[in-house]
Each structure stands twice: as C-alpha cells, then as structure tokens.
Amino acid sequence: MICRIISVKRRKFDGKCFQHGKEKIMEDDVTLEVLDPTGEIVVKGKVGLAPRLNVLEGKTIGLVWNGKKHADILLDAVEELLHERFPTIKSNRYVMSGVSHLPKPGELEGIAEENDAIIYASGD
C-alpha cells in the first residue's frame, strides 16, 4: 500500500468570544497519513505466448466462456465457423465460475490438458 504523509493547518471554530462577541478561530498543525488502496502491481515473471498450431484439422479446440453477457453468442458463431472451415476439428465448451471469482484450483490446467488450443471469450 502506498503511503504519503501530508502536513496541513487545521482551523477550527471554538465558539464565540463573550468579551468581543466575535468568533474565536484556533489553528493547529495536523499530520495526515493518506493511504492509496489500489496498492502496487507486482510482476512475478513474464509468460510468453503459447506455441501456435501448424494445422487445425483433427485438433480439439476448447471454447471457454467466462459467464459475461453475450460472450456465449460469440463462441457459438466462432464454433460454427471453425466447423465449417475445418470439418475434422472437435470442440469442447466450458463455462467458468464467473469473472468475479478465481478459477477453481486445477480448472484451467484441466481445460488445457483436454484441448490442443483454447479460445477464451469475455463479453458485454
């Protein structure tokens, strides 16, 4: 968490002075500690692109939907086009547990093991 210290003058009203009928204002120094809740991004390591397939004929393609609206419609169209262009491919459909949740342990690895390639769709 990023932290910054700020020093400011604070003015506070302390009622009316009975003697003069005017407001009494007091000043004092205040130190505030401001925290940035977004934190810092820590990059643990870079991952390169997955190796590309030379051909799609006879391969199994995983179509992964993260549950967001309309991405399933996109995957329907992609699947249809893939089967038209490459009649020998197989396709597997997957629905993730949602965009606001981390995948279950081993879920992504399992999908990767069952398929030669993956198309992941996020909609809206």
Largest sheet, in brief, is:
3 strands, parallel
Low-confidence segments: none
**Number of domain units:** 2
Main sheet: which strands, in order across?
4-3-5
What is the molecular shape? elongated
The strand count comes to 5
What is the number of helical segments per DSSP (H or I, 4+ residues)?
A: 2
What structural class results from the helix and strand content? Answer: alpha/beta
Query: How many angstroms does the end-to-end distance come to?
Result: 32 Å
- Beta content comes to 35-45%
Mean pLDDT: 80
Nearest-angstrom radius of gyration? Answer: 30 Å
Q: Estimate the helix proportion, in percent.
A: 10-25%
Order of helices and strands: EEEHEHE
Task: Spell out the key features of this protein.
124 residues; alpha/beta; 2 domains; 3-stranded parallel β-sheet; two-stranded antiparallel ribbon; 2 helices; 5 strands
